[in-house]
């Protein structure tokens, strides 16, 4: 479980200092599928960065199974991210001079995992092992980033607008891969999106505005990537 207690985050200095996150507290259960909704500037991406260990909050705590990651040193926090969490962003962040296999293997090697070929097969790219990012479509590149994130078998997968740069057909395909892999590997999903339709796939939905959580609710039924609107 992730326990988030009284998180606050500020940016800027002196008269230009402004508060991005305002006293946020919430728990995220293991193996949940959480979608964080909010308009641009609502603080949802900053919230994701803080709870995933990419940024420190200015106050409050973030605990993974009672381990407070906000108290960790920079080196220990880096080790925590390497061992515990995976990231998928709107931009693919693939290394252009490395093949599909090497990009994914790099993610696996970071956490000393060796099942990267299995992950590549699971996202339908076993025939693209020797291709470079420039030789792939946008959807294929995003599937490589999915495979790279999952190759180290993270406990929590964080996603920030993972379909933002994809067309509808490809976006649905990528979301479907992620959901199927969650059922197989049993990781927790925390996804930031502005697409209200995607929230229908989640178990838990968090609505944010102006740095605060406005509402949290649970979907009684979860739709698939091919059942939601777009």
Characterize the structure shown:
The radius of gyration is 17 Å and the shape is globular. Helix 3 packs parallel to helix 5, helix 4 (116-122) runs antiparallel to helix 5 and helix 5 (138-150) runs parallel beside helix 6. It is built from six helices and ten strands, in the order E-E-E-H-E-E-H-E-H-H-H-E-H-E-E-E. The chain is α/β, with parallel strands linked by helices and 230 residues long. The strands form two sheets. Strands 6-7-8-3-9-10 form a six-stranded mixed beta sheet, with helices on both faces. A four-stranded antiparallel beta sheet has the order 2-1-4-5, covered by helices on one side. The longest helix is centred in the C-terminal third of the chain and has 18 residues, at 168-185.
Descriptors:
single chain; 230 residues; alpha/beta; 6-stranded mixed sheet; 4-stranded antiparallel sheet; 30% helix
Major sheet: size, sense and barrel closure?
6 strands, mixed
Mean pLDDT comes to 92
The low-confidence parts are none
Number of strands: 10
Q: What percent of residues are in strands?
A: 25-35%
- Fraction in helix: 25-40%
Give a short summary of the structure.
This protein has 230 residues and is α/β, with parallel strands linked by helices. It has helices at residues 44-52, 74-84, 100-110, 116-122, 138-150, 168-185, and strands at 2-11, 18-28, 33-37, 59-64, 67-68, 85-89, 156-160, 188-193, 204-209, 212-218. β1 and β2 (18-28) form a beta hairpin.
